[in-house]
Amino acid sequence: MTDKPALTYPVPVLNLPQKGLTVNIGTSEKERAALAAEHGLEAVNSFDAELLLTRWKKNGIRLRGHINAQIVQSCVVTLEPVGSKIAEEIDAVFVPENSRLARIQLDESGELLLDAEDADIPETFTGDKIDLGAIVEEFFELAIDPYPRTLGLAPETEPMVYGGGEEEENKPDSPFAKLSEWRNKP
Hints:
Elements: E1 10-12, E2 21-26, H1 29-38, E3 43-56, E4 60-74, E5 81-96, E6 123-125, E7 129-131, H2 132-143, H3 166-169, H4 175-183
Parallel strand pairs: 5-6
Antiparallel strand pairs: 1-7, 2-3, 3-4, 4-5
Region (Disordered): 153-186
Pfam family, one: YceD
Protein name: DUF177 domain-containing protein
């Protein structure tokens, strides 16, 4: 991904309503084309997100929602177009960059200890806005299958081999075949 996301949707978050703020992000054809180009896809046929922003602790923001998209990629074996559907859930916490909750806690030896079962460390934001477009694009990118395959193609299918049947003729004899020839000599 480049520094500038294909989607931008800044939302002010300092004065959220008590019940939270629901945000629906739909995309234009131009934005979907930018998403496809940015993420190496043949096409993004549809992309939308529904998000709920609520207060978290004193100054934090909790973002929950989901992304739905339909994309077209190239099969890694045949290079044929492969359509797939993305349905990704989002649950993230953001705090202002100067918040003590954003500081990384180190142990006495100076090492960062992470527990896979614990909640993630909150992300930070600067100013009074969060770019929801960039956030949903990040979750979208993580949901894309890095090795798409055409339906019905077995995972162990080998890529096409070029050169025809010459392999059998030029194939060297096995060392064991040579040894058996020695044994059979008078």
